[in-house]
Write a structure and sequence with these properties.
Elements lengths: L2 E3 L11 E7 L7 H12 L3 E7 L5 H10 L2 E6 L4 H7 L2 E2 L1 H6 L4 E3 L6 E3 L2 H12 L8 E5 L3 H12 L4 E5 L3 H11 L2 E3 L9 E6 L17 E9 L7 H8 L3 E3 L2 H16 L6 H9 L1
Parallel strand pairs: 1-3, 2-3, 2-4, 5-7, 8-9, 8-11, 9-10, 11-12, 12-13
Antiparallel strand pairs: 4-6, 6-7
Helix pairs in contact: 1-9, 5-6, 5-9
Bound molecules: NADPH dihydro-nicotinamide-adenine-dinucleotide phosphate (NDP).
């Protein structure tokens, strides 16, 4: 595994396909490890690095990587919206998200996709054993992460998808765009949900969204998109009797979908999730 900083230099064999993840900061990224495991498992000849893109020069960094023979890339904070703007063609799920986390440079164009939402759906349905059809879902947050998961969740035909956000107007706006319901946190009291997804950035700051009593139906799953530590959201949900999951599985599943977009091969995610959990 190799870390490439901007400006980019490559000394890898011509036979090896190059991928990277653009972010700022990026040193913390687990994506190189995940994709190295996927490549080893499936016998794909590829190298996946990290690229610290300058805040003001994301597009230049992408074009430089493409010109040097890069085949595709992931994009993380704070560049997903810029990647959306840069893409010359986009998937339906990228259009719905208004953000791109996966770039594919096949056929000379910059194809933008968004695999975050399907990553969440795969983690819920395949790793957590949670079927979404007919379920009442509460989605907390109206930022980039929330926007990216709405269409893939709706495609699984839940009974209800309610979007709640600290700034209620943003939730109402998103709900209107996707034809579901939305509002602030205060209107949620005693409305039980089968699945509550925390897509706010509250956990990053160690905060708990102000959730009223009665939002967890018996047997409900509380899912925090953040990973790496028990968050106040997870602790509070556990105390209210909910089953709890973090976003590590989503991270690995979104990577698996990106790997499929690039290579046309689906890697096994369970051993990689287990590897990351063991670290
Ligand atoms: P954004 O900054 O785009 O969104 C911020 C959202 O969080 C807004 O809705 C904001 O509300 C809300 N918020 C922020 N602080 C608080 C608080 N203290 N209480 C309540 N609401 C709050 O962030 P992202 O959407 O990019 O990321 C959200 C989370 O999702 C992060 O924890 C990120 O790590 C995680 N994530 C995980 C992924 C994975 O693969 N597991 C993938 C992508 C994201 P308001 O509008 O009122 O400001």
């Amino acid at each position: 595994m190799r870390t490439v900083q901007y400006p980019i230099d490559f000394n890898v064999s011509d036979m090896t396909d190059l991928y990277t993840v653009f972010g700022n900061p990026i040193a913390h990224s687990k994506s190189p490890l995940i994709h190295a495991e996927f490549a080893r498992q499936t016998g794909q000849r590829m190298v996946y690095t990290t690229t610290l893109a300058p805040l003001e020069h994301f597009a230049d960094a992408v074009r430089a990587f493409q010109a040097e023979g890069g085949r595709g890339a992931n994009v993380t904070v704070p560049f997903k919206e810029q990647a959306y703007a840069l893409a010359s063609a986009r998937s339906e799920r990228a259009e719905a998200a208004g953000a791109v986390n996966t770039l594919n440079f096949a056929a000379g164009e910059i194809y933008g996709d968004n695999t975050d939402g399907i990553g969440l759906v795969h983690d819920l349905t395949e790793n957590q054993g949670f079927a979404l059809a007919g379920k009442r879902i509460l989605l907390l947050g109206a930022g980039g992460a929330a926007r990216g998961v709405i269409l893939p969740l709706l495609k699984r035909q839940p009974a209800d998808l309610f979007i709640a956000n600290r700034t209620a107007s943003k939730a109402l706006d998103l709900a209107g765009r996707f034809g579901c319901r939305g509002g602030g946190f205060d209107g949620l009291a005693d409305r039980p949900f089968d699945l509550v997804i925390n897509a706010t950035a509250a956990s990053l700051a160690g905060d708990l969204p102000p959730l009223p009593e009665g939002i967890y139906a018996p047997g409900a799953l509380a899912y925090d998109m953040m990973y790496g530590r028990e968050t106040p959201f997870m602790a509070a949900a556990r105390a209210r009797g909910a089953r709890v999951a973090d976003g590590l599985g989503m991270l690995v599943e979104q990577a698996a979908e990106a790997f499929f977009v690039w290579r046309g091969v689906r890697p096994e995610t369970a051993p990689v999730i287990a590897l990351l959990r063991s670290q």
